[in-house]
Amino acid sequence: MTDDLDALRDAWADQTVDGRRFSEDELRARGQAFERTIRRRNLRELVAAAFVVATFGYAAVVRDLPFARVGSVLCVLGALRVAWVIWTRASPPRPDGSVDGRTWLVSELTRQRDLLRDVWRWYLGPLVPGLVVLPLDREASDLWWLYGIFAVVFAGVHALNRMAARAIDREIGEVRDA
To answer: Which of 1, 34, 65, 162 sits between 20 and 30 A of 27, alpha carbons compared?
Structure first.
């Protein structure tokens, strides 16, 4: 019985696993699809940042309340910071052909995953000062409930980004192992 188990264990240990291998064309297509997804996401985020800049910029000019003005300016600055990070760090570089498709795709997936994991620092964090200052005027003191809404929205954005980072992590493993 022990010899049978040893033989079975040896046979299992000696087997070769034929994992899914991606061809260079499949990797290129997968990379291009991912790049399109990231570019569309970045465009949406840049449009949202432009909306925030326009809305809070207008509020900074027309509002009479000092904290509302300061908070609006801080929101504009936060949105500009977010847009700058999206433009400089979140935009995928075009593959130049000097690296193979697998290496490029894994490095790009890793970069995007790391950005999603760090969303508090570069995306949500820059908006917090303005959103905290906005309702501080005595005339706007009835807007304290907004902090609860901000907290729920920010927690939701954080959770969605963490889920997306985990999905990208799984994809990295799939591309690396294939």
So the answer is: 162
